[in-house]
Amino acid sequence: MLKTVFDPEIPVNIYDLGLIYRIELSEDNTALAVDMTLTAPNCPAADYIMEDVRQKLETIEGLKRVDVNLVFEPEWDKDMMSEEAKLELGLL
After folding, report:
1. d(Cα 8, Cα 17) in Å, to the nearest integer?
2. What pLDDT, in 10s, does the model give residues 31-64?
3. Non-local CB neighbours of 43 within 8 Å, separated by 6+ positions
4. Domains of the chain, CATH where assigned
5. What is the pTM of this model?
6. Euclidean distance between the first and final Cα of the chain, in Å?
C-alpha cells in the first residue's frame, strides 16, 4: 500500500524514498503503527502525504486503527533510498 503513496514533487513512492522508518502491527492484527519522515522538515506536502498514507492503510481489511507518526530522527538523506528510487531519479 505504501508504494502507492507519492510525494507530489518527487516521482518516486515514499517507501522507496526511504521515508518509512517503522511499521508495527498489533498482536491481534487490528492496529497498525507507522513512523515516517519527510525529505525536508518544511515539506509543503506534509499534510497531504500523511493523510494519503493514513487513508490507504485504513483500506487494509481487518484494521481498526492506523496511527501515522511523523518523526525526524534519524534525519532523512538520499542514502536511505532504494536502488530503484536512485535509478529513477538519476542518482546512479
Report:
1. 13
2. 999 999 999 889 899 999 999 999 999 999 999 9
3. 7, 49
4. 2-71 (3.30.300.130)
5. 0.90
6. 26
